[in-house]
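SAMPLE LOG
Freezer: B-3
Tube label: C17
Construct: single chain, 170 aa
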Amino acid sequence: MTTTFKLYKLIILYMLNKVDFPLTNSQISEFVLDEGYTTYFKLQQAISELIESRFIREESTHSRTFYHLTSEGAQTLQFFKNDISPAIQDDIDHFLKEKQYELKNEVSVKADYYRNDNREYSVHCQVLEQGYPLIDLTVTAPTEQEAETIANNWSRKNQELYAWIMANLL
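STRUCTURE (predicted):
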C-alpha cells in the first residue's frame, strides 16, 4: 500500500471518527474530491478496502449508502493518526464544522422499501435524532414505483408530515 493510498483511507477514518452519525458516500466524496486529494475511483477503492478490512461498515438502502466507523477502524486510526498532517486534519475539521447541520440532517432522514409477503411493498420511513427514532413509520404501497415515490417524498416532506401527525395526535 502506497503512503498516499494509506492517507486516503486515514482521511475517511478520521472523518467518520469526528462525527456521531454515519456519513454517506457523497458526503465523503464531497470533501475528498473538492479538496483535490484524489480521484473518485481511487476514493471508491479506498472505501472498498476499508469495508473489506472491516474498518468501516456500510449500510445500504435503495438510494444511499451510509458508512459507520467500526471499533477496528477507530483503533487503526488511533495508531496511524499522526500520519495525517495537521493541515489535512484542520481541513476536515473545518469542513465538518461548517456543514455539520447539513450533514447530520441528510443522514437522519431515512426511507427504504422492500417487497413484503403480500406481494406489495413496505416503505420504512424514519427520522433519527442522536441515533434514536423520532418517528418510525411503515406504509404499504401496491407497486415498486409507488414505493420509490413515497421513499423519495419522505426525504423532502418529512418535517411537514411529522408536524401534521403530531398536531393531529396531540
